[in-house]
Design a protein that fits this description.
- The chain is an alpha/beta fold.
- The protein has one domain: Thymidylate synthase/dCMP hydroxymethylase domain (Thymidylate Synthase, Chain A, 2-Layer Sandwich).
- Helices cover about 40% and strands about 30% of the residues.
- Strands 1, 2, 3, 4, 5, 6, 7 and 8 form an 8-stranded mixed sheet that branches. The chain has a two-stranded antiparallel ribbon with strand order 9-10.
Length: about 240
C-alpha cells in the first residue's frame, strides 16, 4: 500500500495535485465489494490545505459547481435532514441521536481550548451490516476532528474511501462551507472573531475509477505540461 502526502494552497490546487498523484503513483486495485465492482488506482493519502477559504472553492474543470456545493453543505453536512429513500446523510448522523454540532458550538463558547471535540459519523452497527452480507455502504466520511488554534478553526477529516475525481472536490468545498458556518455560529453566540484555518484529510483509499482513466489523463496533462515548460533567464535554461 503506497502512501503519499500533498500540501496545497487552495482547494482547486489540492484536487489537481491529488489526481496527478493517484494517477501517477497509485496502486492498481480490483474492487471486489462496494458501490462499484471495477478496477481502480488508489493511494493511502494525506492532504493539507493551508488556505481553503480562498475562492474559488471549485476548479473550473471539476464535475460540480457552487450551486451543488452549497446544497451539499447544507443538506449533507449541516441541516440533519434526509430525503425520502435515504438511509442517512452525514448531517443526520451528526445531529441524531446526539446533536454533536450543537454541543460542539456550546462547548467552544464555554472552553475554546478544549482539544477533545471530535464529530463522529460512522456508527458501531455499520460493521455488523457489512459482516452480515447485506448490501450496505457505510459512510465514506467517518470523522471530523476540530481544534481552535490561534483563533482559527482547523479541521482534520478521515475518509475510509474517496473518489478523487468526482467526490473529493465537492467534499472538500462542502466541508469548508460547513467550517465557515460552524465558525459563524460560534462567533455569533460567543462574540468572538474566529476564522477558518487549515483543512487536513486522510484516506486509506483515495482512488480513480478505471472508467475515468482517459478523462483524468486528459485533464491533468495540461497541468503537467505547464510545469515542464522551459523559460530563458540570464542566458540559462531553467525549468518552471
Amino acid at each position: 500500500m503506497r502512501y503519499a502526502y500533498i500540501k496545497a494552497f487552495d482547494i482547486p490546487g489540492a484536487w489537481y495535485r491529488t489526481l496527478e498523484e493517484v494517477w501517477g503513483n497509485g496502486d492498481e486495485f480490483q474492487v471486489g465489494y462496494g458501490s462499484e465492482i471495477t478496477t481502480t488506482k488508489k493511494l493511502n493519502l494525506s492532504i493539507e490545505i493551508t488556505n481553503p477559504e480562498s475562492r474559488p472553492l471549485v476548479a473550473e474543470k471539476a464535475p460540480c459547481d457552487m450551486k451543488y456545493i452549497n446544497s451539499y453543505a447544507l443538506q449533507y453536512l449541516w441541516a440533519g435532514v434526509k430525503e425520502e429513500g435515504e438511509t442517512y446523510t452525514y448531517s443526520s448522523r451528526l445531529r441524531e441521536p446526539v446533536d454533536q454540532v450543537k454541543h460542539l458550538i456550546d462547548r467552544y463558547k464555554q472552553e475554546p481550548n478544549d482539544r477533545q471535540l471530535t464529530l463522529v459519523i460512522r456508527q458501531p452497527q455499520d460493521i455488523l451490516t457489512t459482516l452480515s452480507g447485506m448490501k450496505h455502504e457505510p459512510p465514506c466520511l467517518t470523522v471530523i476532528d476540530t481544534e481552535l488554534v490561534n483563533d482559527q478553526m482547523h479541521l482534520t477529516c478521515y475518509f475510509r474511501s474517496w473518489d478523487a475525481f468526482a467526490g473529493l472536490p465537492a467534499n472538500i468545498a462542502g466541508i469548508q462551507i460547513f467550517n465557515e458556518a460552524l465558525v459563524n455560529e460560534i462567533n455569533t453566540r460567543a462574540s468572538t472573531n474566529y476564522t477558518t484555518g487549515k483543512l487536513i484529510f486522510h484516506s486509506k483509499n483515495c482512488h480513480i475509477y478505471s472508467r475515468l482513466y482517459d478523462l483524468v489523463e486528459e485533464l491533468i496533462k495540461p497541468e503537467e505540461d505547464s510545469r515542464r515548460q522551459w523559460s530563458q533567464k540570464d542566458g540559462e535554461l531553467r525549468q518552471v
